[in-house]
Amino acid sequence: MTDALRTPTHRLRLGASHRAMGDLVFVDRLMSHTSYRTCVQRRTPKLTTCFDALTADDDVANVTPLRFGAGEYHVHWKVAGVTVATWRFTVA
Description:
single chain; mainly beta; Immunoglobulin-like; five-stranded mixed β-sheet
């Protein structure tokens, strides 16, 4: 999705359940069966949820479906304690 200036944005809309559904997708393009940690941070009220997982085969996506309430979020993916990717989005 892009905004009026064609800037890439990440926005999700609340559904009838007052939650937005989104998938977190992690792909390891170098190895298979890599341990990783994902942390989802909500800014207000401040809340962090983390979980550990193991990648599938090389280039196979791990998909984690989640539901989000309204707010701003920041997701971190870490391998061996090092952040390898981040993603920010807003649920309105």
